[in-house]
Amino acid sequence: MLEQRLIQKVKQGDREALNDLIKEYYQGVFAYFFRNTRDYHKSNDLTQDVFIKVVSGIDSYENRGKFKAWLFTVACNVLRNQWRHENLHKQCEYNEAVGGASDDHSTAVADKLRLEDALEQLPPEQREAVILKYYHDLRIRDIALITGAAEATVKSRLNYALKKLNKSVKE
Amino acid sequence: MMKKNSDSGFGINFEDFTVPIVSEAEISAACDKIAESLPVIKTGFNINLHRYGLIAICAMLMVAVITIVPELIAPEFKDTDLDSHKTEILESAEDKTENNLYNSSVTESDMDKGIQAEDTTAQPAGAARAPSPSDTGGGRWTAKDTIKESKSSDRTIKNTENKSEPSHGSSGSEASATGGGYSSKSVPMGEAPPPDEGIETIMDKKASSDVVMNGVSDASPKAPEAAGGAAASDDMSVTPGDSRSLAMSAPVAPEGARIETELTAGEHEGMVLLSTGFLNFKEIPEGEKAPATIQNVARVETWTVEKFTAEFGINPSSNRLPEDMVLTPASIDQNVSVRIMGYGKSEAYKVVFQYLGKNSRSLTFDIIKRKGESDISAEEFNSNINGYNIYAEYIKESDGCQRYSARLYYQGVEYNIYSVNLTQEEFINALLSVFESE
To answer: How far is CA B297 from CA A66, A67, B155, in A?
Structure first.
C-alpha cells in the first residue's frame, strides 16, 4: 500500500515522503477542523498541530489499523483540547456564537439555515459524528474508536443530529 | 465533496457546506514547519543484505564455542573428528574395539564393565549428563544395543519463559522415547548437561557435548530450525546398523515444521495442526480490535548490526515469506533502528521489520527485548509450536480484509507478528520462520 510505504519512509526521515503524506491528508484534516470551527486560520493551525503530533509519534505508529483513523483520532483530540482551551464546548456558548454570527443573515436564519449554521448549532459530539461520517467517509466503527464512544452512542448521535439538521435546513 | 455517505436518508445535501481550499503554497509552508518534527534520519535493517554478515559473525562464534566448550565440558574428548565418531559409533555398535574413536585402546573387558555400569544405572532416556568421576579418561566406552539418543529434549529450547502449563505435550513434560512432541526438557545453551542425568556411555557424553555444541551454535541465527526438526522426529532410537547418525540427535529437520491441516486460500480454519504443534486462532469480531496506540517510546537509537545481534541474538528467516513481500525500507548500511521503550527495569528494546507486498499486503514483525519479564500473560496463550506457547488471533473485516496476528516469547525475545491480507497459510509460514533461520 502506498500509504504504508510513505509511513515507513517518514519513519526513516524521508522529507519527500513526509511532504507527500501531508499533501495527501492536509485538506481533509483542514476540512474537519473548518467544519467544526468555521475559522480558516484556526483550522490551518490545528491541522499543522495534528501533523506535528503525528510526525513526532510516527515511530510508535504500528500498522495495525487504518492510518486515516489514527490521524483523525489525533485530530479529534486536538479539537477537544482546543474546545477545552477556548471553552467552546458549552452548549450555551455555541448558541450565542451562532446567534452572533448569523446577525448578517438574520433573515436567512429565520427562514432558512445554511447547513454550516445548522451544523454549528449541533452539540459538538453530534456535529463531530456527522462530519466524520458524511464528510470523511468514516464508518461507525471507526468513528466510535476515534471519539472513544460506543458504536451505539455514535449511531444515536448521528440520528439525533440528522433529525435536527433536517429540521433546521429548510428549503 | 460528494461522499457516498452523503445520502443520509434525510435529504440533506452535505455538499452545501463548502470548505475553502488550502493553497499549495500554504501547504508547502506547513510542510516546512511540520518537517521540523521529523525524526532523525535512520536506516532500517535489511535482513537480506546483512544476512551473510550475520552468518559470518555467527560462524565465528560457533568456531569459538566448538573449540572452547569441549575443553570445559569433557577435556578428555579432544578428538575433533566428530562426524566420523558419530558414524562409527552407530555402524559399529558391536565393534567394541574401535580404537580411533577416542584415540585410546578399548578392550572388551572395558566394554563389559561399561555395559554393567550402564545396566546398573537408571538413566532417563533422552537426557544428557556430564562425565562422571567413574569414567576414565582415555576412552572408557560402553556399548549399547540401542542408543536412546539425546532427543529433542536435550536441546529443545526451554519453555520456561512462557510459564506455560503442560498441555498438548508442552513445557513441563519430558520427551518420551517414542515421540518428539513439545518437550521442554533442555540443556541450557552453552552449558554442560547437569550431572547424574543422561546417557551413561562415553559415546553418549560425546553425543551430549556434540548436542550442546550444536545447541550453542543454534543460539546463533541458525538456531530454531533445530527445535522444529527435533520435535518432528518421532523415533530417535538408534539401533546398531541404523544408518542414521548421531546427527539425528541434533534437532534439525531438513524440511522444518509442516502445516498438516489443509488450508484454502481465502478461507480460515480455526484450528490448524502442524507437525510440531497447533494453532488455535481466536476469532476477534470486527470492531472489537483497538486501533493503533502510541507507545511510550523514550528514544530511538541507531545500533550497529553487531550490537543488534549481540542484544537480540536473532536473525529472522525470510525463507518462508511470500515472494512478493519485500522488506521495507531496504537498508543501505549497517545500522538498525531500535526504539527504546520505558525506563530502568522496565526498559525494552524494540525493532520493527515490515514487509510489504502487492494489493495492500503487509507483514510486520515487532521484536522486543525486555530488561524485565515479558508481559505476555500465560492466560492469553491458545496455541503451541515446538513447545512454545503462542497467542494467535484472526480478524476478518467486512470489506474482506483478513488480519492475522500472533504473539510469542522465544529465546528471550518477544515477537508480535501481524499480517494484513495474507492468507492463513502465508501467515503461519511467517510465524514458523521465527523458529527457523537462514
So the answer is: 21, 19, 36
The pTM for the full model equals 0.38
Mutate to test the interface with B, among A26, A55, A64 (most CBs of B within 10 A): A64
What percentage of chain A carries pLDDT values higher than 70? 81
pLDDT tens digits, one per residue of B260-305: 888 888 888 888 988 888 898 988 876 555 444 445 556 778 888 7
- Kindly provide the ipTM of the predicted complex, given to two decimals: 0.76
User: For the segment B109-131, what is each residue's pLDDT rounded down to a tens digit?
Assistant: 444 444 444 444 444 444 444 44
CB contact under 8 A, B22 and A22: no
Average the pLDDT over A109-130 and give the result: 77
> Does residue A27 belong to the interface with chain B, where contact is any CB pair within 8 Å?
yes
Residue A8: how many CA atoms within 13 Å on its side-chain side? 23
Contacts of A113 (CB under 8 A, 6+ apart): A121, A168, A169, A170
Nearest residue of B to residue A136, measured between CA atoms: B3
Q: How far apart are the first and last CA of chain A?
A: 44
